[in-house]
Amino acid sequence: MKQFLLCLLLIAGAGVTRAGIVESITFDLSDLHPGSTLSGTFTLPNSPMAGDTAPVLLSFSDPQNYSPTSVSSTIQIGNGTSLAFTVGFSDIVFTNPSGNMFTKDNNLMPRGLAQCASFPCMATGGFQDNDPPAFTSTYTIAPVSVSVPEPAYGLILPVLLASFILARRVVAAK
Q1: In DSSP terms, which residues pair with 76 in a beta bridge?
Q2: Residues contacting residue 93 through CB under 8 Å, at least 6 positions apart
Q3: In what order do the strands lie in the sheet with 53-60?
Q4: Contact in structure between 29 and 37 (CB atoms under 8 Å)
């Protein structure tokens, strides 16, 4: 019965956890097509630290101009130089079928990481296409305003009440 009560309390604890920090990343691809962007959202833990990573699925604002129409990457949190953190990304590879010999096959890589004092964060970093670069541009990190539910404190009361009732029954049965 004690194991049952411990499991019940552990399950109740899951109901009071908070969501992580949701951020967006947007790459300016205007050098390939005017007004073109590549963007996505990612979630960091509540207290991000250097070494944390987060997957991100990126979509083009004009998918008809690129292949594939969405690409995945990994956001990487590092130690900053002037500020506490850097926000980088793993290389992003895609094709621009209408591009010339320099901009047809693209491999975006960080060049001057976005730096943040804390999270949520709004910052700008740089990237280049290939090495040597066919073009350079910027990417932006910004908080995403989502309605995150507050912790479910209402779940604690019924679970604690049930625990006390069950505990009294166990003690009374002995």
Answers
A1: 53, 88
A2: 71, 105, 106, 107, 108
A3: 92-95, 105-110, 123-129, 136-143, 21-28, 37-44, 53-60, 70-79, 85-89, 114-116
A4: yes
- 72-76 LR contacts (CB < 8 Å, sep 24+): 73/40, 75/23, 75/25, 75/42, 75/44, 76/52
* H or E element that contains 129: strand 123-129
Take residue 33 and report the two structure tokens written for it. Answer: 């097509």
Q: How far apart are CA 14 and CA 162, in angstroms?
A: 17
- Nearest-angstrom CA–CA distance, 94 and 67: 6
Distance from C-alpha of 67 to C-alpha of 63, rounded to nearest angstrom: 8
Q: How far apart are CA 128 and CA 138, in angstroms?
A: 8
pLDDT one-digit tens code per residue, 53-96:
999 999 999 999 999 999 999 999 999 988 999 999 999 999 99
Q: What is the pTM of this model?
A: 0.74
DSSP for 156-172, please give it. Answer: HHHHHHHHHHHHHHHHH
Which portions of the chain are predicted below pLDDT 50?
5, 150
